[in-house]
Amino acid sequence: MGISMFRFELHKSEHVSFKVCSEKGSLSDVHKIPRRIFLATIFSFSLGVSACGGNSASGSLTTSNITPSQDFEADETEVNSPKNEAVESESAAQQEKDSETLTRSTEAKDTDTSTTVKQSAKAEREPKKSKWVAPTPDNSLPRVPEIAINNFTRLATADLRSWTEAGTSHINWWHSDITSFIWPIGSEVGGPNELSEPFNRFRVSLDKDSMDKLTSAYTTFSDNAPCLNGQRANFGSWQNRNELNEGKRRVLGWIESGADVATAPVPCFSSRAVTYAFPEESTTAQGQHTYLHELYHALSSYLQDYCTNGGALDGDRFDKLRWVGEGTAHYFAYVVAAELNGTDDAAETMLRDAERGARGGETLSSAESAAAALRLMVERGDLLEEDIMSARIFETCSWPDDWQASIPSVSYAMNNWQEIESRSGKWVFKSSVLP
Predict the structure, then answer these.
(1) Residue 407 gets which letter from DSSP?
(2) At what angle do helices 157-168 and 322-341 cross, to 10 degrees?
(3) Assessment of whether the complete model's pTM goes beyond 0.90
(4) Residue 292 and residue 223 in one domain
(5) Which of 94, 281, 325, 427 is in Cβ range 3.0-4.6 Å of 351 for a Cys bridge?
(6) Measured distance CA(309)–CA(354) in Å, rounded
(7) H helix and E strand count, the chain
(8) How many domains does the chain contain in total?
């Protein structure tokens, strides 16, 4: 079976439609919002949850059908290439052997002749077993990703939807449905326990009714994972229900224990989540930045899980480059937040935070420091900002090859990201580290 390839362009004049659940849980309105231009070379299912409501006490859910992108799973494909010549040669030899066997059987008037003939004919009729291939922008089929937002906080659901739309508009290959779960937590009460680890524990702010709706919504999301219910192909056939249930158990434990979680679970390649416990002392700006950071993780096709069979293969290769994953997400959050807020201070704010961290002893392991290292590469001409913002960096599992410390441009950024100063009231890199 061949693979079809598509390329779509979305223009400014086109719109997207959002279905908004009313307080009673029925569809009450449809909003059309203009989209910015972006290209997609061509991470759906409808999530049915009960967490619909008109205020933060009961939660709210919005869904939207967005621009055509590419399907997350490639078709199972017949691969005919030079590397299969040996196999084809063996097959030819086997056919010759089968023919000799049939001749001998016929000459001997063996009673199994008819069986041999049937088996040989069946083998000729059956196609070769399809070979599964990892999806990429070039081999995937078009689909329309969906967004669902489960919001139980004082943050406006319309704002969360706007943030999500602004983020997805940058992505070159947006193929996965995004389901967001945002809920409030109170003040800190202690370190991690069995349910909250690896996160600290905060006071649980949700009342019982809202907690039940939130946990029910996440349970529905997880249980209806399209890669395990037949709607979508299982990525590489390594995913299983037990693994998915373990992931669900951990997320529900975080929610119920008041963990200060901010992460992006990916139960399926085509279905990803943003989970964020919004602290009561956080500002809207802080919430926006954290949300956009986790959204970028959800929109990054290949970080680690889908390159390592869920962590079973060569995980160290990706663990060593955690700073790249965290730095790109933080960089993305700075830029998209500036766009949303109508400012042009993304780079300056990024360097201000990194300089403060450097004075406090932060290393490249912090997201702020890593973002500054990436910014240094951009300003030195070693990296395109567009490759960060579009998540092209993570479109295949070979991305670690481009981020090895043995590469001079990468090594330079890793060792000089902290060379920041305030000049004329703005935070900039020192002239000594720029060309």
Answers:
(1) S
(2) 120
(3) no
(4) yes
(5) 427
(6) 34
(7) 12, 14
(8) 3
